[in-house]
Amino acid sequence: MSNEIEIRVPLNNEQIKLKRKVALQIKNTYGLKFHPLVVDVISTTHLSSDAVRVVAQMTESNGKLCRCCNRTLKQDISMLVGVGPTCAKYLGLDYINHPDDVEEFKKKIDARVKEIGQFEFWIPKSQIREYVKGNRLKFLTEKFYK
Prior knowledge:
Layout: E1 5-18, H1 20-30, E2 38-47, E3 51-58, H2 76-81, H3 85-90, H4 102-116, E4 118-124, E5 128-133, H5 136-144
Antiparallel strand pairs: 1-2, 1-5, 2-3, 3-4
């Protein structure tokens, strides 16, 4: 990378949406069965004139979007646990069909996320689709990229 500097900044799990190109690189590098399109950025390690190197992990947030593929979740149970049936399979988990199983399933997902662990990768500014939560990474990239 050109004009690369080491800059270690903790980011307190700021959340960003990535474009497919970077998500595919993460998938291939770390042997995942899905594209992690939404990640929680833990810290930066380096900045260059056209990219930032970060340490990130799968997002911990739940809601109407899948934690793995960022698609809109349609089933109530999927919204409660944060993944759909297909991505549950990609995580190596049997999907549930009863609300009584939600809490146990969430624990299994969290354990799988911890098992997958953190990834370190370069993100060109053009590959950040959206800054979802937090603003320190956005501030760093906007100040450094010209």
